[in-house]
Amino acid sequence: MSTSLWRICGGWSPIVRSLRMLSDGASNGLVKRELLNDSSIVHLILNSPKKRNALSLAMIQALHKELKEAESLEKARVVILSAEGPAFSSGHDLKELRSSEGLEKHKTMFESCNAMLAQIQNMSLPVIAEVNGIAAAAGCQLVATCDIVIAGKSSKFSTPGAKVGLFCSTPGIALARAVPRKVALDMLMTADYISAEQAMQAGLISRLVDDDKVHEETMKVAQKVASMSRTVISLGKNFFYTQVQLPVTDAYRMGGRVMVDNLRLADAQEGIDAFIGKRAPNWTHTNKKVH
């Protein structure tokens, strides 16, 4: 992870401490897991519909655990993140943010959430959000953090914290990196929802489809990603998030080195040979070098 990303998520010490806290969590049914497409697609489902899939501390811990386990699966190539019920996620559980819960609980909540979101961007597997319904506050932050977002036409997105006296400062971090500043500030300061169409125009989501086609479209995208070399996709994802933090000149300099290193991979040479030979590649999905 780049230094700037560590700073975004609260610095080194809180992240390390939060990852330890997260590792103690259990799923407890809050996140369900399905293995699809010969186990190459790991489908994680937020499973607290009665609470509109609020990102409680328990939910954050469960999601961290499942993401960590997904990355450890040898056949895994991509993660889909969806939700049960009419809401993708309503954000943090406000009951856990009352003063009666105490300052330490509040610190743990936000440090743990920041660490889990950093985990999504820094894990080797791409994460695709499959969104139906609302995504609000930290739920919108979760959407903005995922690598690819497929959303239904009736989906809505908001950062409404100011309405209840708690400005969406951390959701605004991911939001500001996904949409233009004027759109982000409008959402943060008015607490208004934006439609799926507006979110598409602003760049918050990748693809917009009819509500009943969201899972089908998500699977199509996931299958395409899963057909690539896990090693190459991991390398590309890591470099992408590193280079967007750099000045253009530095990004190109680093990019050139990454391209050369990529060419050393057995999977790169296999892909080139397969293309020239007009056949399907036989990926190793490893870091094996040919030179």
TrEMBL record:
Which GO terms of the cellular component aspect does the record hold?
mitochondrion
GO terms classed as biological process: fatty acid metabolic process
**Which is a Pfam family this sequence falls into?**
ECH_1
Q: Does the keyword Transit peptide apply?
A: yes
For this protein, the parts annotated as crossing the membrane are: none
Alphabetized UniProt keyword annotations: Fatty acid metabolism, Lipid metabolism, Mitochondrion, Transit peptide
Q: Does the keyword GTP-binding apply?
A: no
This entry's Gene Ontology molecular function terms read: hydro-lyase activity
This chain's function reads: May play a role in fatty acid biosynthesis and insulin sensitivity.
Protein name in the entry = Enoyl-CoA hydratase domain-containing protein 3, mitochondrial
* Species this protein is from: Toxocara canis (Canine roundworm)
Taxonomy-wise, where does this protein's organism fall, top ranks first?
Eukaryota, Metazoa, Ecdysozoa, Nematoda, Chromadorea
